[in-house]
Amino acid sequence: MDSRPTLFTISRENALDGRNVYINFRTNLPNYVDRLVGGILGNDWESISQHVASNDTSKIPALQTFDLTAANPTRNDPNAKIIFPNIGYKSQLATALWTASFAQLGGDQTLVNKMRVWIDGQVGAINIPDAQKILMTDPASGYTYVARKYGNDVIDGKTVEKGIASRMLQHANQMIGVAYQCQKDVNNKPILDSFGRPQLILDGQGQPQETGLITTTEVARYIAIIDAVKGIEHDLGYSPEFQCSVFPTGVVVVRNDDLLGDSDQLRTNLLA
Description:
Elements: H1 12-16, H2 25-28, H3 30-41, E1 51-52, E2 81-82, H4 89-102, H5 110-115, E3 117-119, E4 133-137, E5 144-148, E6 152-155, E7 158-161, H6 165-179, H7 216-236, E8 243-246, E9 252-255, H8 257-260, E10 264-267
Antiparallel strand pairs: 1-2, 3-5, 4-5, 6-7, 8-9, 9-10
């Protein structure tokens, strides 16, 4: 994600604008980067992990990388053994932090916009048509999270959202549909409303009912990742005007020599 150039040249274009030198992997591989970030933040390990051929019985099997650059990523072996990518909460926070920090330095807001998530009714909410929204209502808090949909992508036969935040809400809704009792169709699949939310069956006091298939703690922990992404976005802002450097201490140095004249504006946002 880090697009800060290692080489500076003296040219009129750089002096007048300067954004053209901020090039990262997404500049050339937008689908790959979006799928990778979406898979990491969406807990969708199958869509990003390496795999081993189903007929590989050797003591040291050959790992095969899943090609996310393809138009329709598909594993040649339908029975391939998926390898856990060793990714967890800490890696997800780092992914969200560095993406939000550096993805927009060149002025391209696409990836940051795809990551944008907000809570309905809170400051920072965006008005978009209902047809473009995906919602997720946390059964524990009652808060409704909103993200914009960017269409569908098919990865190894699985249909997922092309957006990052929308993919996260999609996954949270899937977890809610397993953790809580909800209305089912003839195929025993949760019935979703027009915004992608499972229709919960409430008890006599209007509270959601647990199924015990997965714990509500698992759901809460995943929603906490969505909250973390929302908090990182809020702290760093949505404007490419300032170039952000994030250090392990959690201190964010916001730097833009053109606007601030060689001075650094410090913000001690502890992004934890």
